[in-house]
Design goal:
With 400 residues, the chain is of the alpha/beta class. Helices cover 41% and strands 15% of the residues. It has two domains: 284 residues, 4-Layer Sandwich (Metallo-beta-lactamase, Chain A), CATH 3.60.15.10; 103 residues, Cytochrome Bc1 Complex, Chain D, domain 2 (Orthogonal Bundle). It is elongated, with a radius of gyration of 24 Å. It binds heme C.
Length: 400
């Protein structure tokens, strides 16, 4: 399965080069997807320790090495030539070469739309002397905290507004990765986010994804570069849902392609196959929600008899209540293997847990932590998680 996945990915990266296409909106524009660079990604560096379930998913994914492009967009209309993001400072030569290949000079760029102010997106602005720089109002302060904006012709925008008059290009808030991180809609019209998502003919996702296949299937997996992880996860879910609902084509900065893709079987058969493959199914099954659901079922069916339905019972008056144990999965795993016998009662538990896998213990720990008041963030969050997880419990279980 993994071999097949790897071959398919390789095939796609060979087939997909930079792409150029026309958008026949009210005001037609030409879009070029340009990759300035390829990066080999070690996913363990992108997504280091987070939750046990995310890590389990990561372990599966990272057995192959991923190659990401570094995409920017060139959008040419009747009276503007705009770039969406500019790459790194160190890829200015590549940027100039790419413009040159399209019979353009840096001086001819009239607008630069910044999705967010990380160095790999703003690094090229200094090579574009005549451009007006458009940046989200929440993002500008973040930019100025890190580097100077002096000498730049900057104009801020609010979300859901047209960025260049008559262009059909709009920014939609996808905050979290950075405070003002925006996705860019093309061929769109409307005044609300819902209208823009529905009308957009193409979306540039910027940094919604760093590990595309993994995060498309399991949006709860945040990358190290997501400044506010909770918000970034919500933004990722929101954007994925909109792309699926409207079958909009899209590309992001750090994706393994430089061509439009869709969450749609017809026009991106290979992608859809990948997303729906057994491999991705495994990743899905390791998401937090499914982990919680699996953990809840296991806990109530097996552990609760001795440790109590709230995990707070002191077994035989000796074994501490589980809410006071920090490394539950690890201890339980050692009990299964017979390498831990703290209270000389190992055998009592061993028989009951002998069929469980490491992932089952991780899932059980996740659930126990969600019901222990000391460990849980709030009762409210628990209820929400428990409610969500029980709805999901029909998801097939992972085979080990
Ligand atoms: C039949 C009763 C029983 C069941 C069922 C049971 N346990 Fe236990 N558990 C025990 C006993 C007894 C011990 C103490 C073992 C020892 O060290 O002698 C224990 C110890 C533990 C400890 C270690 C506590 C510490 O401080 O060392 C953990 C963690 C634990 N159980 C988790 C679980 C989980 C998770 C489940 C369900 C998957 C489970 N147990 C199911 C009886 C049970």
């Amino acid at each position: 399965m993994k071999k097949l996945f790897f071959c398919a990915t390789l095939l796609i990266s060979v087939l997909f080069g930079d792409e150029s296409f026309e958008l026949n909106a009210t005001n037609p524009i030409k879009i070029d997807i340009i990759s300035l660079k390829q990066n080999k990604v070690n996913l363990k560096n992108i997504i280091p320790q987070s939750t046990p379930n995310e890590l389990a998913a990561l372990t599966l994914y990272s057995q192959k090495e991923a190659i990401n492009e570094h995409n920017i967009i060139l959008a040419s209309g009747k009276d503007f030539v705009a770039l969406i993001d500019t790459g790194y400072e160190k890829t200015i030569d590549e940027l100039k070469t790419a413009l040159n290949a399209r019979a353009l000079t840096p001086e001819q760029i009239t607008h630069v739309i910044i999705t967010h102010s990380h160095q790999d997106h703003i690094g090229g602005v200094k090579a574009l002397p005549n451009a007006q720089i458009l940046v989200n109002e929440k993002e500008l302060g973040f930019w100025q905290e890190k580097s100077s904006t002096e000498g730049l012709n900057i104009k801020t925008f609010a979300p859901n507004t047209e960025l260049i008059q008559g262009s059909g290009i709009y920014a939609i808030a996808a905050y979290g990765h950075t405070p003002g991180h925006s996705v860019i809609a093309f061929g769109a019209s409307g005044t609300s986010e819902a209208e823009l998502f529905a009308s957009a003919k193409f979306l540039f996702l910027a940094d919604i994804f760093h590990a595309y296949e993994l995060q498309a299937a399991a949006p709860v997996v945040a990358s190290v570069w997501d400044h506010n992880k909770a918000d970034a996860i919500e933004a990722r879910k929101k954007v994925i849902n909109a792309l699926k609902a409207h079958k909009t084509s899209f590309i992001g900065t750090h994706m393994p392609y430089s061509k439009r893709v869709k969450f749609d079987e017809n026009s991106a058969k290979i992608m859809a196959n990948l997303i729906q493959s057994e491999y991705i199914g495994l990743l899905k099954a390791h998401s937090n929600e499914v982990g919680l659901s699996n953990g809840k079922e296991l806990y109530n069916n097996i552990c609760a008899a001795c440790h109590g339905s709230k995990a707070d019972v002191k077994y035989a008056g000796v074994v501490p209540n589980l809410c006071d144990v920090n490394t539950i999965a690890d201890y339980a795993w050692h009990y299964k293997k017979g390498t831990r016998n703290r209270y000389n009662m190992t055998e009592i538990m061993q028989e009951k847990i002998k069929t469980l896998s490491k992932q089952d213990f991780l899932d059980t720990e996740l659930y126990i932590k969600s019901i222990c008041p000391r460990l849980a963030k709030s009762e409210e969050a628990n209820k929400e998680a428990a409610g969500k997880s029980s709805q999901k419990s029909s998801t097939p279980k992972v085979q080990k």
